[in-house]
Amino acid sequence: MNKKRMSPKEKNEERWAWLFVAPTMIGLIILNFYPIFQTIYQSFFKTGDFGKGNIFVGLANYQTVTQAAETWQSFWNTIKYALIEVPFGIVIALILAVLLNKKCAGRSVYRTIFFLPMVCAPAAVAMVWKWMYNTQFGLLNNVFHTNIAWISDPKIAWIFVGIIGVWSIIGYNMVLFIGGLQDIPGDFYEAARIDGASEFRQFLSITVPLLSPTTFFIVQTRIIGALTIFDLMFMVMDKTNVALPKVQSVVYLFYQYAFVQNNKGYGATLVVLLLIFIMILTVILQRVEKKIVYHN
Amino acid sequence: MIESAQTKDRIRRVLKHVFLIIMAFIMIVPFAWMILTALKTNQEAISVNPFYIFPHNGWHWENFGTVWKSYNFIVLYKNTLLLIFFRVVCAVLTATMAGYAFGRLKFRGKSVLFALVLIQMMVPGQIFIIPQFLMVSKLGMLNTTFGLVFPGLVTAFGTYLLKIGYEGLPKELEEAASIDGCNVFQRFARILMPLTKSSMVSLGIFTAVFAFKDLMWPMIVCTNADTTTLSAGLAKMQGQYGNDYPAMMAAATLAVVPMVVIYVIFQKQFVEGIATSGGKL
After folding, report:
1. CB within 10 Å: which end of chain B, N or C, has fewer?
2. What are the residue ranges spanned by the domains of chain B?
3. CA–CA separation, A39 vs A44, rounded Å?
4. What is the largest CA-CA distance in chain A?
5. For residues A200 and A271, which has the higher predicted lDDT (pLDDT)?
């Protein structure tokens, strides 16, 4: 069978290698690859009572899902959330990273503080923000003497849910940016300084292009992270909140259908659509990457 | 000239710190408000006129004790700890083995298998959840630690991370080991594995933090209050007692504090662990 005869030593190595990758590969096949197909398969079925007696319905789930205004609204809600979390979370993090990259007083204290939300359960974070946003008793309205329904006014609630997302992610993005900044050789800045370039000029001509792989990486992972947001919406938005339909994300809707209403077929259909959407976006992003990212 | 350049520099430095302090303040406020509310009585917490920032009739530390007992926090801690422990052990163990094979050994099917690892990393995790739930349910493992750990028995991301770790080690190590008569396993266990300790620590921290933060999976597989984790437990409490604000904030504090304390002590490892793992993702 083999073109090349393997030496006993190579054969031995191969046996060990297979043994070593076996747990991971078997696990991935059972836990991840089989489920991908199972989910797609399930999206063609109507879930029977108590999850038994599934009936094949063809594309009926897709029809119902794509005809429901709620579906498109939830996609739009998710995109709007991403439009807040991704750009603001990244720009603020970049500014902080540039400021904290050079030695300065209290640098490690600042870094510790900004990174803090990263080690906190989003469930707890969301509870605290929900309490601060409380229209009647909340910190924000009482300190600013306003009467804003931050998270229960359907017109603006998405913005303030997005702000929680920004607050939660800044520190993480910042740490990734600092990692990228430290890979930029110091002599570049040295040379620019000798040429008399201002700090802002150095930022634009050295930092921005050389940091672009890091930036692009963060943009890409954050977009996908934001499009699969769930915890925030689930914890912040009460089921009775009138703004819920204008805030609930695709994954929130998926959870509601698949696990609260126990309609696995419908839930599977939603998540397959989300998968397709994210795949298309990933392909587009890869194309964009080749055009704009600076490679040495 | 020199003097004006110095003043300019000083102004710039002051502005920088003003900005950093404002940002740090914004980051701290929710935590401060969480703890301050936890120390009030409910009447104080919902008092608007006057509005109290600080508790004004004593600091009610006993709120923590009350919440601790009434929501059975000891069980939530235990479940979360078990989840984290087994996820970390499974992830580090399987990823180290697979990472070594992918990073250092030659075998047929390597590129195909590694492509599977990369594909898994690109697919959003929600697509796995329904079948994973059905499997746990069929195994009769709902409301068990095994059910909680289940999706994290192996890790594509960790395999990728460790593969990079093993690839980065110098080639000469194995040659020297072969001459010394070490077999494949001995080379792995005695020589190479100890050198990837930092990758293993990174993966461990990364796994622990994300297991701790996960909300949807524990809500799905562990619906009983005494089998679930801190995150999912908080969701349950909010659904039931959402209007007792000091209690909710005390619960949130109890859920967050252990990880924050560990983070502050092992800061360097945490930030590096999460950043190097995240950065390579």
Report:
1. N
2. 2-64, 72-280
3. 9
4. 81
5. A271
| Helix or strand (DSSP H, E) at A45 | strand A45-46
CB neighbour class for B230 (10 Å; exposed up to 12, middle 13-18, buried from 19)? buried
To the nearest 5 percent, what fractions of chain B are helix, strand and coil? 80, 0, 20
CA atoms within a 13 Å half-sphere pointing along the CA-CB vector of A278 = 27
Torsion angle, alpha carbons of A159, A165, A167, A168, to 10: 170
**Of the partner residues A36, A113, A227, the one whose CB lies closest to the CB of residue B123:** A36
Domain boundaries along the sequence of chain A: 8-56, 68-292
- Closest residue of chain B to A134, computed from CA coordinates: B46
Please name which of B96, B157, B163 lies closest in space to residue B121, comparing C-alpha atoms.
Answer: B157
Quote the minimal CA–CA distance from B74 to chain A in Å: 17
A 253-282 residues with CB below 8 A of B? 254-255, 258-259, 264, 267-268, 271-272, 274-275, 278, 282
- Of residues A42 and B184, more confidence is placed in A42
Q: How long is chain B?
A: 281
Whether pLDDT at B280 is above 70: no
Q: Is the pLDDT of residue A294 over 90?
A: no
Which CATH superfamily, name and number, covers A68-292? MetI-like (1.10.3720.10)
Paired tokens of B127: 């697509």
Give yes or no for a contact between B81 and B60, defined as CB atoms under 8 angstroms apart. Answer: no
CA distance A108 to B161: 26
Show the tokens assigned to B23: 């940002």
- In terms of Cα–Cα distance, which of A122, A295, A108 is closest to A217? A295
Ramachandran category for residue A81: left, alpha or beta (phi over 0 → left; psi -120 to 50 → alpha)? alpha
- Pick from A86, A32, A30, A258: nearest CA to B123: A32
Please choose, from the candidates A277, A264, A255, the residue with its C-alpha nearest in 3D space to the C-alpha of residue A44.
A264
Contact indicator for A252, A36 with CB cutoff of 8 Å: no
Distance CA(B269)–CA(B236), nearest Å, equals 32
- The Cβ of residue A90 has, within 10 Å, a number of other Cβ atoms equal to 21
CB-CB contact of A173 with A93 (8 Å): yes
Find the CB nearest A175 among B17, B134, B271: B271
Task: Give chain A's mean pLDDT.
Answer: 91
CATH 1.20.1530.20 fits B72-280, yes or no: no
Q: What percent of chain A has pLDDT over 70?
A: 96
